[in-house]
Design a protein that fits this description.
Layout lengths: L1 E7 L5 E7 L17 E13 L25 H8 L8 E9 L14 H15 L16 E7 L5 H16 L6 E5 L13 H12 L3 E4 L3 H4 L2 H14 L10 E3 L9
Parallel strand pairs: 2-3, 3-4, 4-5, 5-6, 6-7, 7-8
Antiparallel strand pairs: 1-2
Helix pairs in contact: 3-4, 4-6
Amino acid sequence: MTHINKQRDASGTVGVRCQLYCPIWMVSNGPSVTLWDFKMSIVDVIDSHVHLYPQSELSTLAWCHEGHVLHSQHSAEEYIQAIRPLENVPAFRIQGFIFIETDRKSNLDSEQGWEEPLKELDWIKRVAEGTPIPNEGHSRDHASLCLAIVLWAPIPLGSNGLSMYYEKVKEQAGKSSPLIKGFRYLVQDKTRGTMLRTEFIDSLRWMGVHGLAFELGVDARSGGLWQLSEASEMIHRAHSGVDEESRVRIVISGNSSPLAS
C-alpha cells in the first residue's frame, strides 16, 4: 500500500511525500513521469519482509544447516548495519520492519509440532517489547523497529485447529498480540493440491473473518508454474461467496515470480 501526497510549489515543481508498505517505487495518478521530474521530500519506508533470528536458535531453523551462508546471527543489530547505507540517502527514512517467520522446524501431527514456531514468537516478542536477554543481538533501543509480525501457523488443519493455535499465540504474545497481523505457511515445497484442500481453504476464510492476512510463499521458478495456477484457484475459492470486507488478504512473497533468481 502506498500513500502519496503531492504539492506544487510556486515554480510548478511537484514535491512528493510517500509512505510505502510494500515493494517500492513511485506511483503517479497523473501523466507519465520519471523520477527526475520530482522534487523529493522524505520517503517513509516500512520494510515489508524481514527475517531475523538469534545465534542461540539456529538449530531450530528447518533449512539452515551448519555451513549454510546464513548460518549465523541475523538479529536487530545486523539489520541496523544492513540498512546503514540508507542513512546517506536523505530522501529515505526507515520506519521499521514487518517480521516474517523464518521457517522453524514444525509439523502438523500434534501441538508439540508448534513448539519451535511458538519459541520464535517468544524471541520476536522480546525484540518488540525491548526486553533483551544476553547475546541475542538486540536492545531496548530496537523495540520500535518491529511494526508487525507474521507467524507460522498450521493452515492445513482447518479453522478448528487454526483457532486453537491462534488462542495460544494471543495468550503467549500478551501485550504484543496487536502486532500479529497474519500467518504464513510455506507451500512452495508441498505437494500438488495442498492449497486446494478443504481444510486449507477453510483456514483462509477463517483468517479473513478475523482480519488476518495470509503470506503466500510459492516458487514457480523452482517448483513449477503449476504452483501459480494452484495459488490462483486457491484465492478464488477462498474469496468465492465471501463479502469483500471478510475476504482474506493475500500477500504474495517475492519468490513467487517465475523469473526470480
